[in-house]
Design goal:
Length: 368
């Protein structure tokens, strides 16, 4: 018999699966490492934002200053047919001249009224407590009011706790100086910095990134310009109204109302409290008229000035604005409250353009 030739037996299943499983395992390991790396970077990014929050808020404040200066210089350059760099220099000179002349003319009166304000508000609270304690049903309200000594400490620590980068009164002045000078450098050559940011983005997405940055800049510029006009009107109207009513310290109270008008909804309440307390120390009727004055000013702003601002910038729902103020105020203090609205405006543009339009494919209609 001839020896029968045996066909080679097929290799076991493990031999076939081993070469297939090896690439799959390597691919799974790569994905796992990538996900872990992204998670670690995300956590490190959150930690960096948390610990460097003051510096980041200061940078954002510098950007806001630069956006406003750029918008003003661009408007001036179009009006008088001048190069934008020269118009920026003219805007800066006029700004410093206005601040210098205004400070020189009103500094003694502002300083005197600010000192009296720190003394008058605690006395007004003490008087309010004594009046309320006469009524048993209202007596519980006095338990929630701080002591006059605490009021003085809180008012004196308002500027140092304003946040941003440096602390203390001199630190607050340092913050203002940094914001002004860095804002001027940003406004002088904005394309240098925007191009540097865009170069960090893949080439296929750079055109869209430039569109997003331009839209954020236009939105913030329109909002800042309108808000500046609104702050000037509110401060002037409040100061004149308090003077006509006979409320003491009308100038410093009007300045506070104008500055705090930068913070929508919460700012007018913060500005109205000391004015009402001082008016109440004179008579309850004067306090009522002061409340009506602040209410009237805010109604005019809310129904006339604010719609004009939003029609040229971004329409932010009131609930969203207040929530953002509460969140940023809890995380970053008074500086977070002050910068919450422009941050919300920038975030809304990012969500609309990068998520609603690019990811979902929905067209966002421009506000009119």
């Amino acid at each position: 018999m001839r020896g029968s030739t045996r066909s080679p037996s097929p290799p076991p299943d493990d031999a076939h699966d081993a070469p297939r499983e090896a690439p799959q395992q390597r691919q799974l390991a790569k994905r796992t490492a990538l996900i872990n790396g992204i998670a670690v970077l995300f956590i490190l990014g959150l930690a960096a934002v948390w610990y460097a929050a003051d510096a980041l808020l200061l940078i954002f404040a510098c950007i806001l200053c630069a956006v406003l200066l750029y918008k003003l210089s661009d408007m001036l350059a179009r009006r008088i047919k001048l190069k934008r760099q020269w118009s920026l220099a003219l805007v800066v000179v006029l700004l410093f001249a206005a601040i210098g002349l205004g400070g020189w003319a009103m500094a003694p009166q502002i300083s005197e009224q600010a000192g009296k304000l720190a003394e008058t508000v605690p006395k007004s609270i003490q008087q309010l407590k004594s009046v309320v304690e006469e009524y048993p049903l209202l007596k519980k309200l006095t338990d929630g009011l701080p002591e006059p000594e605490q009021i003085v400490k809180q008012m004196s620590s308002l500027v140092p706790n304003a946040g941003l980068f440096f602390g203390g009164v001199l630190g607050a002045i340092g913050n203002v100086v940094i914001i002004l000078f860095v804002g001027i450098y940003f406004a002088a050559s904005p394309h240098l910095y925007t191009n540097g940011v865009i170069k960090l983005i893949p080439q296929a997405k750079r055109h869209r990134a430039r569109q997003v940055l331009n839209k954020i800049g236009q939105t913030l510029a329109s909002w800042l310009l309108g808000k500046s006009v609104s702050m000037l009107i509110v401060g002037t109207a409040t100061s004149i109204g308090l003077s006509l009513l006979g409320v003491p310290l009308a100038l410093i109270l009007g300045i506070i109302a104008g500055l705090l008008d930068f913070v929508p909804y919460l700012g007018p309440i913060m500005a109205g409290v000391p004015a009402v307390l001082i008016a109440f120390s004179i008579s309850p009727d004067l306090a009522l008229y002061t409340v009506l004055l602040f209410t009237g000013v805010q109604l005019v702003e809310g129904y006339l000035l604010q719609p004009l601002i939003e029609s040229r910038a971004v329409d932010l729902p009131p609930a969203l604005t207040i929530v953002m103020q509460l969140v940023f105020g809890t995380l970053f203090g008074f500086a977070g409250v002050a910068l919450a609205t422009p941050l919300a405006a920038a975030l809304k543009v990012l969500v609309q353009m990068l998520y609603v339009e690019d990811v979902l494919g929905d067209k966002v209609e421009e506000s009119t």
